[in-house]
Design a protein that fits this description.
Layout lengths: L12 H14 L8 H6 L11 H9 L2 E2 L12 E3 L9 E7 L9 E6 L9 E6 L4 E7 L4 E8 L6 E8 L3 E7 L3 E5 L2 H6 L6 H15 L9 H16 L2 H15 L5 H7 L11 H15 L3 H22 L10 E3 L5 E3 H6 L3 E7 L4 H5 L1 H11 L4 E7 L4 H13 L6 E4 L7 H5 L4 E2 L1 E6 L4 E4 L3 H12 L7
Parallel strand pairs: 3-9, 13-14, 14-15
Antiparallel strand pairs: 1-16, 2-6, 3-6, 4-5, 4-7, 7-8, 9-10, 11-12, 13-17, 17-18
Helix pairs in contact: 5-7, 8-9, 9-10, 13-16
Pfam families: AhpC-TSA (PF00578)
GO molecular function, one term: antioxidant activity
Protein name: AhpC/TSA family protein
Length: 465
Amino acid sequence: MLERNSDPTLPDASRRAARMARRRASRGIFQRYSPWVRAMRNLLRQAAFIFAGAVLLSALAGCEKPAATSAPPRNESARAGAGEAPADNFEIHGERMRGVPDGATIVLLIPPYGPGQEERRIEAQVKDGAFVLSGRIDQPAPGMLYIQWPDEKRYESAPMIVEHAGYQVEFLDDLVLVTKGGEYNDRIFAYRQFPEYLSERQRYKREMAKFSKLDMMDEAAVKRARKEMEVIRADNRADQIRRDYLWSLIDEASLPALLKLLAMSDFDSRQELTEEKESELLDLYQKTLGPHPLILQRRAAMAESAANEKTREESAVGARYKDIVARDADGKAHRLSDVLAANELVLLDFWASWCSPCRGEFPHLAKVYREFNGRGFEIFAVSLDAGEKEWRKALEEEMRKGNVPWVNLRDEGAMESTSAKAYGVTQLPNNVLIASDGTILARNLREFAIEREIRARMQPAGKAR
């Protein structure tokens, strides 16, 4: 429960502006995404390809690490209908949602919120214009709700706090998905209903829509689009409204520590919440909450991030490669060292079915592969899909396009697999260019840079072994 004497109003604009100015002067800028953010805000990446404009936007940027998918625990359910949530349960209702057709898939994802916890996933189908998701929760925890249209050309998502409450899902202005209900949830995500936030979201979407028809094989057009998008993102006032509101909650002395801890889940990157500031806040909240599971989880995620950074340093350009093994669609094991022994140059390419930028780069890879494969170049592609079914489906789709004529493998464990950990992979696309002597020549080449690098190293043509 929220404290009864907490002030439900936002600080006035002048106080908020002054605080933001002080923060900008005092906080460092970190480009890396926090590991908690990767688990929280990018859960929706598990959807397949989305409508064309969003696919393009993500292709121009990149995919963060998603949580692994899993079946709902036995005590959770998904059904159509209505009802009241028992005291220790939650229920999420959607009725007569504008533009959402029958057959749409509703998914609630709750990442691990304490040591020993597993990700939870609950699904339902919209039937007769309605749905209900229900389950148990032993304490308030961050979650992500998304709606996938039947034709898989559109989805919408909304962060939420899952607690002992009933929720109503609504669309505001046919654009912003909100979940109303729950004391912590309503307080933390109140900004999503602010008129100025809705207006800015509409403006941002309109400006980004102009990139939906971009030819991703046109290098000059892609470069221009990236520059324009950087300017648009920098002027994304909807994000500024969100950040200001979240910091107003954290700065408000009368609010409970648990609400502030939960609010931290909606920060978007290390630019918004630096590692030093996060540690400072966790130390402060632990004085009140003790070793709360969410605090322990965030500290564990920070430690994991540091370990991954060390692994990336060990597999940087100039270092020696690490051997890995993965299996093809027939279950046959393939070892990277064997492929290296038979070629002059090998590109280790990590991808996943849900990563549209990865799949958007396949035409570039196919172009150089067909040019140099018979002359000592090979691609060792490892899928980090959590599910074999999703990988096989994506592989079949790409094969029909003629995009993946190389060695296609999958390593069980997704982002926690041996292959991903060996190279410190926490986001996709991710690739490693390796010489036949085992030296790492380049990392994380994109699109046209991949073509140029491989072409430069393979000409004059090397001799196939």
